[in-house]
Amino acid sequence: MTSFWIDIPGVEPDGFSGFLTLPPAGSGPGIVLVQEIWGVNSHIRAVAEQYALDGYVVLAPDAFWRQQPRVDLGYDEAGRTRAMELRQQADDQQLGADIAAAARYLKTREDVTGGVAAVGFCLGGQLAYRAAAASAVDAAVSYYGGGIQNNLDLASKISQPILFHYAGLDKMIPEEAVAKVKARFADQYSAMFYDYPEVDHGFNCWGRPAYNQRASALAHGRTLSFLAEHL
Prior knowledge:
Layout: E1 2-7, E2 17-22, E3 28-34, H1 42-53, E4 57-61, H2 77-89, H3 92-108, E5 112-121, H4 123-133, E6 139-143, E7 162-167, H5 175-184, E8 191-196, H6 213-230
Parallel strand pairs: 3-4, 3-5, 5-6, 6-7, 7-8
Antiparallel strand pairs: 1-2, 2-4
Helix pairs in contact: 3-4
């Protein structure tokens, strides 16, 4: 398994990059792995390696490159404060366009054999949803995607398979917000939802207090099954 930073072409101005991880076989289907607000930090890089070991070519784009290139934040108070500053400075539509560009680039790589999916967490979950709406990916997975309930006008543009993971104790995405998303996709057979009733927002991240091993493993297995079927 090999990991390194690469430049992602086709986005103006120049300077957009991503953390690329190749699987042991050297090639495979592609995943655009979309960060939380802490940047392409040690956790996201580890998740990239996790999916690479599952056989995928994984590209984790630097979503906040326009605000602070290659930001790498921890989960302490200082890290949270800076992450929130960067989040407030960023424009969701622009972020979505950048992630879509990263996905289109990934499809051109010779080491990508098969389809390309977007898998994102929190902010990244919304950006994975936007990449699907932009027809840039063949499938999408959103872990507790923040703000999707406020952008349901994009849902009509999504025809490819999409998987949503939601945490039952999530105060940032309360039950009524999840209900709005489910209602909007109720007639779309390609959308799947999994609920995790006893866990909180961020349950996949082992660096945060909300981490839940069982829910994380269950969601990862379901995501792998979904990707194996649709890529």
